[in-house]
Amino acid sequence: MRLGLISWMNRRVVDPLLQIVRKGAEPKQLAFSAALGTTLGLFPICGVTVFLCGLAIAVLRSRCHAPTVMLANFIATPIELSLVIPFLRLGEFISHGPHFALTSDALKRVLTGQASREVLVSVYHALLGWIVAAPFILGALDVVFIPCFSYLVRRFSPVPSSPPTLLHSLSEVKIKVRDV
Q1: Mean per-residue pLDDT over the chain, rounded
Q2: What are 41-89's pLDDT values in tens digits?
Q3: What pLDDT does residue 18 have?
Q4: How far apart are CA 37 and CA 58, in angstroms?
């Protein structure tokens, strides 16, 4: 099982990351793109993050590196699920809204459709929490990722090619002389 997880991580995360780094993008652009993809990947509504990343790529165009944004979004998915509750609680705190109880009874009421207003309010609170936290997350990740990508680009970028050599040696150069 452990070997399968390592193989999966290499195929899905490490190999694409190395391909991105080897293409020669700037470390600052890669860092910003990874921070943006991660921040958008933490959006507390599952299934929406890919569209948010696509929109960001379309708006920012050459200022971000699209494959890095999407890879970071993919990597952030498990973290997204773990941060829904903290975003919910932050939104409740900011808005002084009602506390949404996360109990088995609440889950039963959600599944039977009896808590629709409470669910909408809790989604609003989670979105509010993410909106407030997102600029801080983006800024902190960008600062952390710059030295990481600087190192990766230095370490894994292809070695610059040697200067071009003359195609023909001097002995092969033939000069055509006209007879007069």
Answers
A1: 85
A2: 999 998 899 999 999 999 999 999 999 999 999 999 999 989 999 999 9
A3: 85
A4: 13
The distance of Cα 32 from the centroid of its chain, to the nearest Å, equals: 9
As to burial, measured by CB atoms within 10 angstroms (0-12 exposed, 13-18 middle, 19+ buried), residue 154 is exposed
Question: Considering only CA atoms, which of 123, 1, 23, 20 is closest in space to residue 75?
Answer: 20
Say if CB 71 and CB 25 are below 8 A apart.
no
**What is the spatial distance between Cα 78 and Cα 41, in angstroms, rounded to a whole number?**
9
Q: pTM here?
A: 0.80
Interval 85-107: pLDDT, tens: 999 999 999 999 999 888 777 76
| Interhelix angle 15-22/116-156, nearest 10 degrees | 60
Q: From the CB of residue 27, how many other CB atoms can be counted at a distance below 10 Å?
A: 19
Instruction: Determine the Cα–Cα distance for residues 154 and 21; give it in Å rounded to an integer.
Output: 9
Burial class (CB in 10 A: 0-12, 13-18, 19+), 60: middle
Give the span between the Cα atoms of 129 and 21, in whole angstroms: 33
Helix pair 66-95, 49-60: axis angle to 10 deg: 120
